[in-house]
């Protein structure tokens, strides 16, 4: 558990297209404690925390050391939501809650097509979702009790997921007498 009294460190992860950024933005707006949303992919681009751009995959090869150095003071301070398609890179000590968003692969395919992803990237991400790659990463990298798998297919899912996470934050606050 992070030692912060300012707010928890919440990791929202999942295959691209599962709704991580939408969840993180809404949670940052509605949270009972101040939470800063960090879109890790955007941070990588903006702060040049990458080694190269992979044309075939249309994505950046992240410099993990630079990224972790950039995030360490933010994670230490607490009160952040890390939004990224992978989670095992983040040290276990950072995370108070790891939310893995899941989506039916046919819905996911449609979402990625709308983003104009190359076919190979759509196929790869779809296979990753079917094979539960991100969920397995989360479960092997963090204590079972802090990893939560949530469906993210409809607006109703988004609303109930945000409510659930806010209830968790309230409990987190009470455990630390921050209420």
Automatic annotation (TrEMBL):
It catalyses: AMP + ATP = 2 ADP; ATP + H2O = ADP + phosphate + H(+). It is found in: Cytoplasm; Nucleus. It comes from Dichomitus squalens. Keywords: ATP-binding, Cytoplasm, Hydrolase, Kinase, Nucleotide-binding, Nucleus, Ribosome biogenesis, rRNA processing, Transferase. Residues 114-124 are annotated as: LID. GO terms for molecular function: AMP kinase activity; ATP binding; ATP hydrolysis activity. ATP binds at residues 17, 19-22, 115. Broad-specificity nucleoside monophosphate (NMP) kinase that catalyzes the reversible transfer of the terminal phosphate group between nucleoside triphosphates and monophosphates. Has also ATPase activity. Involved in the late cytoplasmic maturation steps of the 40S ribosomal particles, specifically 18S rRNA maturation. While NMP activity is not required for ribosome maturation, ATPase activity is. Associates transiently with small ribosomal subunit protein uS11. ATP hydrolysis breaks the interaction with uS11. One of its GO terms (biological process) is ribosomal small subunit biogenesis. InterPro entries: Adenyl_kinase_AK6, P-loop_NTPase. This is Adenylate kinase isoenzyme 6 homolog. Residues 39-62 are annotated as: NMPbind. PANTHER family: ADENYLATE KINASE ISOENZYME 6, POS9-ACTIVATING FACTOR FAP7-RELATED. Interacts with small ribosomal subunit protein uS11. Not a structural component of 43S pre-ribosomes, but transiently interacts with them by binding to uS11. One of its GO terms (cellular component) is cytoplasm. The keyword Transferase applies. Its EC number is 2.7.4.3. Belongs to the adenylate kinase family. AK6 subfamily. It comes from the Eukaryota.
């Amino acid at each position: 558990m992070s030692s912060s009294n300012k707010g928890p460190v919440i990791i929202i992860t999942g295959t691209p297209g599962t709704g991580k950024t939408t969840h993180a933005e809404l949670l940052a707006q509605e949270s009972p404690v101040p939470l800063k949303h960090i879109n890790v992919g955007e941070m990588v681009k903006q702060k040049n925390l990458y080694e190269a751009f992979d044309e075939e995959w249309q994505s950046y090869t992240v410099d993990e050391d630079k990224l972790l150095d950039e995030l360490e003071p933010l994670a230490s301070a607490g009160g952040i939501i890390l939004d990224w398609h992978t989670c095992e890179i983040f040290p276990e000590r950072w995370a108070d809650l790891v939310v893995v968003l899941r989506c039916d692969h046919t819905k996911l395919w449609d979402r990625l097509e709308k983003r104009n992803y190359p076919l190979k990237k759509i196929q790869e991400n779809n296979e990753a979702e079917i094979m539960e790659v991100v969920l397995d990463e989360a479960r092997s990298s963090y204590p079972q009790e802090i990893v939560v798998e949530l469906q993210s297919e409809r607006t109703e899912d988004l609303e109930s997921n945000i409510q659930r996470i806010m209830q968790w934050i309230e409990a987190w606050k009470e455990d630390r007498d921050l209420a």
